[in-house]
Amino acid sequence: MKRNRKRLWAWLLVVIMMLSTVGCSGSSGGGGDTTTAAKDTTAAPAATEIAGNETTAAADTESDTIKIGVILSFTGSAAYESEMLRQGYDFAVKYWNDQGGIEALGGKKIELLYADHADDVETGVTELERLLDEGCVMISGDYSSGSVTLAMKPICERRKIPFVVSQQSALEVYAEGNEWVFNPTNDASTNAQGLVGVIQMIAEMYGDEVHGVGFIAENSEWGQSQMASFRKYFEEAGIQIAYQEFYELGTTDFTTQVTKMKAADVNYLIPVVSGLEEGVSLYRTVKEYELEVGFFCCGGVIVTDEFKEAVGEDANGIFSTDTWNPGFLEKKGEEALAIHQLYVDEHGYNMNENAGCAWNSVAVMVAALEAAGSMEGTDLQKTLMEMDLKPDSPYMIMTQFDGMKFGFPDNNGNYGHNIYGLSTVSQLIDGSWKMVWPNEMLVNNPIIWPVE
Fold first, then answer.
1. How is the chain split among helix, strand and coil, in percent rounded to 5?
2. How big is the CA angle at 94 (ends 90 and 100), to the nearest 5 degrees?
3. pLDDT in tens, 398-436
């Protein structure tokens, strides 16, 4: 009888210990009330069922960190840009972690997990699945390949993980039905609007009539998307298009194209070029044939250091859209300038557009985590869809836009894009990219026109 009682007490002790363990497992690590703890206990099993009888690793609420995956093209065509993005992501995450982490989640810190898609769809899908299996609660990144983003998009939707891109302008990503990819910055339509804006500003400032706009674009997914967007927004602005042509990738002789441009009286040339050899050849041919045009780019190879080194001082005066430039920080205020100086102190040079876009993406994800008070994908997605950050929000301290609100659709008919997102325009002046549009964002506009 005594042995049975001992067995009974031993069994009861095990049950009590098991119940105690379950009751503690919902703790968020500090500060939360009992209702939050109870919610976490039921919402974070080892694996969550999703459509198609597949599973995804649930957020680890007991971890000291919040894992965010960043997938870029470290060994692909955008290796340089991806490294600049990495610097921006690391800088932004360190800044927000140093502010105390995510207060709504007990001060948890963000941990970045990187992956390389190498411009390959299959690799991108495989690496994305790996990041999700390792417990990432949000995904960010991509830059160079709309195809890779389009392949990753349904996986994020199926596994209920928001994807906050850094710089992905392909409009196909933001088609109707998109609810899991969020773009804080620019897209192909805002690039076109930025170029229309700066050309119209030049006309107003210098009294130059806007006429003779020419487009030349590589015959690629990016080139076709940009060309279609340019035609749409320039025509809507009532600006005459004097010349437009696609060229095949690998073209190194642009004599025929430049001769046509000269005959069409092109004054503003808008090239869409990703290859260094093509970009250098096109620019040198324009100079050789004395085609007096303003060169207005939408990023691509022409804004890289490699292009600048290849053409030398002749590169001065080129304009390009960009997604971030420190030129607006002076008007933003001393705190923004001080944060930027931290980056300069660490790296020895200014944040470029890649690092700035990474900052924007991190700020959006931090804001979502704080507002949701959760690491569950569906909670974060709902928070992002309802996000409406004002210019004075602390998350907007390094952002040039008037706010952060994801439109469904936005004013251009795109889904998941920040309705305030725009492409600013910079000019290469004395070897440095200086922001010149929008004029109202600047204390003093450094623009040079006409370009000699």
1. 50, 20, 35
2. 155
3. 999 999 999 999 988 999 999 999 999 999 999 999 999
Residue 307 and residue 280: Cα distance in Å, rounded?
7
What kind and span of H or E run contains 67? strand 65-72
3-state secondary structure of 417: strand
Residue positions counted in the chain:
452
d(CA 440, CA 212): 27
Using CA atoms, how far apart are residues 110 and 87, in angstroms rounded to an integer?
Answer: 15
* 407: three-class secondary structure by DSSP: strand
Backbone φ and ψ of 80, nearest 5°: -65, -50
Render pLDDT for 246-294 as a digit per residue (tens, 0 to 9): 999 999 999 999 999 999 999 999 999 988 999 999 999 999 999 999 9
CB 224 within 8 A of CB 247: no
Structure tokens at 85: 């993005």
Distance CA 123, CA 173 (A): 19
Name the token pair of 371. Answer: 């507002």
Token digits of residue 86: 């990495």
Q: Is the torsion defined by CA of 83, 402, 105, 142 positive or negative?
A: negative
Name the H helices within 159-220: 188-206
The closest of 165, 92, 128, 102 to 372, measured between CA atoms, is 102
For CA atoms 73, 76, 81, 82, give the dihedral sign.
positive
Angle at CA of residue 285, ends 279 and 290, nearest 5°: 130
List of E strands, 219-282: 241-247, 268-272
3-state secondary structure of 292: coil
Q: Which of 394, 323, 362, 359 is nearest to 139 (CA)?
A: 362
